[in-house]
Amino acid sequence: MRSRREIIAQSALGLGGLTIARAESAAKNAITTVKAIHEELDFKASPERIYEALLDSKQFTAFSDGRAAEIHRDAGGTFSIFAGHIVGRNLELIPARRIVQAWRVVPWPAGIYSIARFELRKQGSGTRIVFDHTGFPPELAGHLEDGWQENYWKPLKRHLGG
Amino acid sequence: MSNIHQEVLFAASPSRIYGALLDANQFSALSGGAPAQISGEPGGTFSCFGGMITGRNIELIPDQRIVQAWRVKPWESGVYSVARFELRPEGSETRVIFDHAGFPPEQQEHLAGGWHANYWEPLRKHLAASRI
Lengths: 162, 132
Hints:
The structure holds two protein chains of two kinds.
Chain A: H1 4-14, H2 21-29, E1 36-43, H3 47-55, H4 57-63, E2 70-71, E3 78-81, E4 86-94, E5 98-105, E6 114-123, E7 126-134, H5 141-160
Antiparallel strand pairs in A: 1-7, 2-3, 3-4, 4-5, 5-6, 6-7
Helix pairs in contact in A: 1-2, 3-4, 4-5
Chain B: E1 4-10, H1 14-22, H2 24-30, E2 37-38, E3 45-48, E4 53-61, E5 65-72, E6 81-90, E7 93-101, H3 108-129
């Protein structure tokens, strides 16, 4: 088995310019301290367009290769994305600024939810997404980091044209 | 470690514990009269200890499970932890299996003590006092 340190090192390399603020301290403190993911990503699209793409069922379905997404638009409402593989509930929604979701992968033990927080910061005509993911089963950190990259950021960037 | 796991045994049924945690009047009473507003619906919001703790119900299974997005007022805006209460009957008693995850890691010690002082001990007193 790869150690946590190796996983972090490899995913950090694979993510190019992404900032993974926890990676450095995680490498120093070894396995059990890696329990949060922090990423910052720059998009050319406006905060409004990113907010819409993340909460609009049709757009989300489109950028996730047609895997069905059903997303309620109200705080407290539920969502189901990637054809039911990820489910959860909106905790806090501030249009064009913030999305906080209780987020779980269906095979996780019943009742276990993580918190995914997307802060959208306007930068010129574009947006910086400041993303934090906490409260997930700690052994999944490396897998989830790769997942955000492959299933959210890359397809979202393609969908928005940058 | 930045998760809290606690197991606490109460001399009350799961249904009474579930009720006390989600009923605003009972919660206010057990927290020394501090105002509490608690939605009993999944997706609904709550505010307890006079607004010091706020959040939203993520999942509710009557008499079995409460999962809440839970934040303390001074935390950075938008930051929530997940508090999960599993209620498991053991004879005439109930074991509360509690897990708290996703909070700012430097808060662990403070929070771990807080669950005992502000939830379990007052809840135990409340359940004993209201027993018929």
